[in-house]
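Regression test case RT-17, inverse folding.

Input:
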């Protein structure tokens, strides 16, 4: 097999949650008198919250207001949006297939640790929770390569034997900067033009599973 380890993003890749995250951020900003519609925020989902705060509102994530907005976003997302989220097409079957193949499967996400388990439950991938690398494990969030590099280190695989699967340009950039091949999925809302740099592009986890022979060997 071409790969020993697969590094998986969650939001937009295994769970259809990108729009929900944008809406939660928009509502959190509104609580502090800042009007940023979710359509403005949506293109930044996939980056870490620290980068989003800086780019949208010129706020340091460690500032008092930055921390309060982040905390409000977390609460809004968990209370209003998380219960209604659905997995992307084929997500559970794809994760099960990877594990059955004996691949080392590790999560590499910009989500926080306290959100990861709930998101993985949605796509029936709770088994990956102990191997999750999150924004809490890296100094810099995506598209910096730190999260991917940390997940790669946990996997024990060399970069040339690992594959990152994600749905945003930030996943692709982080993987490339970490020396890891990337496969991009369109189910997060990005088109092929924005996913350049990836080794291949598929519609969603089911499409990737259906064409496994094209990339796994």
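Golden output:
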């Amino acid at each position: 097999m071409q790969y020993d380890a697969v590094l998986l993003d969650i939001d937009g890749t295994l769970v259809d949650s990108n729009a929900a995250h944008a809406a939660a951020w928009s509502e959190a900003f509104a609580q502090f008198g800042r009007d940023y519609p979710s359509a403005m925020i949506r293109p930044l989902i996939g980056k870490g919250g620290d980068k989003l705060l800086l780019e949208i509102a010129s706020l340091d994530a460690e500032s008092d207001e930055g921390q309060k907005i982040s905390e409000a976003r977390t609460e809004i997302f968990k209370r209003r949006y998380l219960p209604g989220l659905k997995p992307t097409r084929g997500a559970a079957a794809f994760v099960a297939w990877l594990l059955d193949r004996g691949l080392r499967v590790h999560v590499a996400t910009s989500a926080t640790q306290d959100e990861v388990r709930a998101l993985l439950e949605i796509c029936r991938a709770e088994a990956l929770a102990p191997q999750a690398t999150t924004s809490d494990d890296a100094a810099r969030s995506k598209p910096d390569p730190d999260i991917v590099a940390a997940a790669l280190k946990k996997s024990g695989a060399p970069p040339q034997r690992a594959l990152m699967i994600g749905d945003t340009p930030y996943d692709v950039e982080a993987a490339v900067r970490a020396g890891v091949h990337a496969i991009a999925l369109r189910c997060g809302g990005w088109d092929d033009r924005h996913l350049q740099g990836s080794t291949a592009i598929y519609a969603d986890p089911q499409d990737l599973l259906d064409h496994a022979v094209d990339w796994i060997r």
